[in-house]
Amino acid sequence: MARRWPSAGRSRSRCKKRWRGLETGSFGLGCGRGDLWGTPAQPSEEQIVARLYTPTAERIWYIRYAFKAGESLEYIHKLTKIDPWFLAHIRDLVALEERLRAWQDPHLREQDGPAAKALLLEAKQAGYSDRQLAFLWQMTEAEVRRLRKRWGVLPSYKCVDTCAAEFERTRLITTRRMNPPSNRSGRRKRRREREREEGTGTGNGKRERPVFPFPFPFPFPFPIMTTKRSDLPARSAS
Predict the structure, then answer these.
(1) Rounded distance, CA 179 to CA 122, Å?
(2) Domain-located, residue 223
């Protein structure tokens, strides 16, 4: 079993973004038209070993070929001197690629929908692009996107505060993550119904946020108030 590292999914996704930024026409680690594995031009073991010795821009693709050829992580580390932490991520991506290839049959995906949906989510969290998935599953990129939308495998965007709340933010920067489908609307609906029955809360299903009646910075310790802003006394102009 592949070893699990902290934040492994985010690290693999970041690696794939770097590989797409090499401007070599590739949309990730293999699984595209330029992939030589399984073609008449598939490199031999001697060619793979020769490419691993010399650090070039194309060596990352031959590291993948080495894992697909059955070479061990220790042997590849001995040839490349690359940290095993990075090699373990590449090995996990190659193992995930083989699992994706096993689901090429569309009838199999429809019969075992929950397992295929979980695998698709794992692939997107690992950084696989829709074009790579279309290559593996013999579909079009538009069909993969429609399948993701039907299964609820969609990205979420979170705001990144570049000033750490210390200064006023002038630019909005967001980060894109592929999170599992949430049932947030259902939880809010149940919370709203419970608040109406009990006569408590805001009545709209949203949680109350603390309101600070004074500007920042403030002295510590400071009181946290949960009243509405309209109920606060007006401040005198000074």
Answers:
(1) 10
(2) no
Answer yes or no: is 182 within a domain: no
Task: Give me the CATH number covering residue 52.
Answer: 1.10.1030.10
User: What is the residue range of 150's domain?
Assistant: 8-160
φ and ψ at residue 53, rounded to 5 degrees: -70, -40
* 53 contact partners, CB below 8 Å, separation of at least 6: 79, 80
Whole-angstrom distance between the N-terminal and C-terminal Cα of the chain?
68
Beta bridge partners of 175: 158
Whether residue 119 is contained in a domain is answered as yes
For the whole model, what pTM was predicted?
0.65
Q: Is 218 helix (H, G, I), strand (E, B) or coil?
A: coil
Pairing of strands 173-178, 155-160: antiparallel
Q: How far apart are CA 176 and CA 182, in angstroms?
A: 16
pLDDT tens for the chain, 238 residues: list them: 344 433 444 566 666 666 666 666 677 788 888 888 888 989 999 999 999 988 888 888 899 999 999 999 999 999 999 999 889 989 999 999 999 998 888 888 888 888 888 999 888 888 888 888 999 998 899 999 999 888 888 887 777 777 666 777 677 777 777 766 555 556 666 777 777 777 665 555 555 555 545 454 544 454 544 444 555 556 555 5
SS3 state of residue 157: strand
Give the number of domains in the chain. 1
98 found inside a domain = yes
Residue 158 DSSP code: E
> Quick one: angle between helices 84-101 and 113-125, nearest 10?
150
